[in-house]
What does this fold into?
Amino acid sequence: MDDSIPSGLLKEWKIGDNKLKKFTSVEDVNDIDALVKKALAYKVNPLKDATLGINKRIGLLFLNPSLRTRLSTQIAARNLGMEAIVFNVDKEGWQLEFEDGVVMSGNTSEHIKDAGPVLGSYFDILCIRTFPQLVNREDDYSELFINAFVRYCGRPVISLESATLHPLQSLTDVTTITEILQAKPLGRKPKIVLTWAPHIKPLPQCVANSFSQWMNAWKGTGEFVIAHPENYQLAEQFTKGATITTNQDEALKDADFVYVKNWSTYEDYGKIYENDPAWMLSLDKLKTTNDARVMHCLPVRRNVELSDDVLDSSHSIVTQEAANRVWAAQAVISELLK
Amino acid sequence: MDDSIPSGLLKEWKIGDNKLKKFTSVEDVNDIDALVKKALAYKVNPLKDATLGINKRIGLLFLNPSLRTRLSTQIAARNLGMEAIVFNVDKEGWQLEFEDGVVMSGNTSEHIKDAGPVLGSYFDILCIRTFPQLVNREDDYSELFINAFVRYCGRPVISLESATLHPLQSLTDVTTITEILQAKPLGRKPKIVLTWAPHIKPLPQCVANSFSQWMNAWKGTGEFVIAHPENYQLAEQFTKGATITTNQDEALKDADFVYVKNWSTYEDYGKIYENDPAWMLSLDKLKTTNDARVMHCLPVRRNVELSDDVLDSSHSIVTQEAANRVWAAQAVISELLK
Amino acid sequence: MDDSIPSGLLKEWKIGDNKLKKFTSVEDVNDIDALVKKALAYKVNPLKDATLGINKRIGLLFLNPSLRTRLSTQIAARNLGMEAIVFNVDKEGWQLEFEDGVVMSGNTSEHIKDAGPVLGSYFDILCIRTFPQLVNREDDYSELFINAFVRYCGRPVISLESATLHPLQSLTDVTTITEILQAKPLGRKPKIVLTWAPHIKPLPQCVANSFSQWMNAWKGTGEFVIAHPENYQLAEQFTKGATITTNQDEALKDADFVYVKNWSTYEDYGKIYENDPAWMLSLDKLKTTNDARVMHCLPVRRNVELSDDVLDSSHSIVTQEAANRVWAAQAVISELLK
It folds into this structure.
């Protein structure tokens, strides 16, 4: 772009403007508890910053389906006075290219290098959901898509779930645990267990990676245990610091919170090795816990991942957890608006 | 959910809160004429309650396509100051499960028992469109989907057309008939005819069921006649009270309003038995009517269901009828906001 | 419709009301430079007419995918205080019929004669995107779809790209050229070149037709040259007045602006004859230009239509061009609101 163009005339983003904040990982957060406190304050008073985002626009770009993330982020933005525009990139637009230097004679119609700056000129904050391909681990774990998006759009970016992480979900999870503990203090830090569950499809590791990352970073965590079958270990970069076991019963003992989630294999990438129904969390298994609260990011396959008798019991806080998505998103957007 | 959590902190819906109003059938309406009057008042002054829904949100969930219902309900909500969010469940989210107790190892990804309360936590009013499958009559006529939705979302629910009924359409129809009669009184109650029309696909019985139900419940109806070919009878629960005939000519005689609509068979469920083009309504057939107004819910297949010469004549009030969808929806939403 | 109905009760459109403005071609514009000036004024102050469209609604109907057009028009409408509602006709509704008098026993579910007036009753301004079929030239060039839409909806219509033209893009292009020249005057009218580029799919001629039409109509154009391979000539109705050549090098000489765009054949309609990669614009080819600015409507296939080294150089103004879509749309909507 020509620097001699009067800047007053230009609302476009220029390369070099990109000293902007983002929310794509726990590493983007300075103080988890401060953010949680903010989220819980919005829950008490959703409209307390109703003019903070006035005349500002947030773009929500989806390359994959979404229910909770989509709706809660829209609502959070509106609570802050922002205009929210949803765009289903894959269905309403066309397939984006993220590789550099490629001859675009295949299925992709537009490069993120071109789409990014344009979207940056249209919106004040951009959000994007880009699932992993689950084909090549190096590709997915390089976070090519969201990193290119952050690089080229030149605006604060919020991850609505990327190839390896789902930070809005994890902030919600910490917020929900905090809320529960504030209402009924334990007098000690909680034992929190992440347990693998069966599923019929190979799913991303995002939610499990991200929950592990946040549990390890959060100072409110007491013991954090990850339980999974043989060969289902997660990437060490996210789990480091956790106790890891293949014995679910042992993990559940005295647990205060049990997070249930399926993920596909990480080592021999994106596979389902076994799908032992014995790993489904049932009411019976909760007996050895400390009357544990059961969490899940939803959608959940009933009687595959979690039994009806757990989900329909007072152990389950999945609705409260999903409802809290709004306040977590609102806390993050309000931070980026500053 | 833990009852010890201070309720001020919880915006989620709890089971037991569900003493809420709904609009899924004429049976949910106390006074049809009062609702019609309200709709017509909004037509005169669309913005007279422009702040009634301020800071409230309505969610429009579609499991099936929609044009008029979608747009008119969005517009009606906005006229009342509400934030309206559309969500195409099938395209933007994933397939919902409605059966209780099922092992979810098939195509459905989320149970309404889990999605419902979450949606209830996001919205003040929820609307849903769920067409019948037209495979198993008992399943469709149990209204499993919308009933489960009402049960689990814990918010006032508006049907945007369910497996067997389309009440927003029928309220619009009664509103339109009332409007016409107010402008040009007959001096007597009108003869209203619902006549089957040919179509190339097996369609739901919803609009015909619903129109019958409302005509039979409305005190403004004079004679109400349903005309259809042999073997196309509708469910008696909706038609009881109507005169039913297989002689279209006889039905049309002296009619003041003719509602044209195709439906598939009810007895031997969801079939097209015959598709006699003689049942298409043409201008010629209207000669024996009392200069009848012709109605159709749209979309209409021209020259299959209704001839061009009727639709392009002054008999047709299909545009007026479709335009009135806004005011009917607005009347219903305003009732549920109270 | 019955004329005896008090007009105060009717918000529907009536045939005969249709003395309304539209924006479907340069022929709908009285003064290009005045419209450009308006667009650039909105760029300086996007919210200067923030209440002009208050309580008015704009409908954006898409029969085809869109990113920039969709988002920029939504944003432009919101900047003017309008409510914008997007409707993906093909995905959220059903297929429309545009042919007159047809027996609708095929794939189309609703005639524009019926959908148009209904949409007109819901919205104050309507926008529609309808790509050509690229099968039958006479059909596409008759602009059946958008003309029927204009005729039957009875509201001001904005083309979001039709079968043969893309006027919002062209207004943006003239606006961008004007902006560049105002910042760095040449002291003469610019030489502007439209050059064909290779692509892997047969694309519409819309952008090229429209740019040609606007260049020939605009009094700011100096020399306007169209360069394309043999057999890729455009329709004379749009190109008349331009210099046309099959020698790209000659065309580029001393060019101030180079517009790069693929289109399929017009004569032997909708084909790709050859796809000579030598026609891809590269940095090397720009050497003989007057340090030309390079334009493209996006999406662009990198290293097929345009090389990375051009798009990533200071020659490229494609981001500025795409960002300007907002202000061009805002200028047009504000004109139609008057």
Q: What stands out?
A: The first strand of chain C starts at residue 22 and ends at 23.
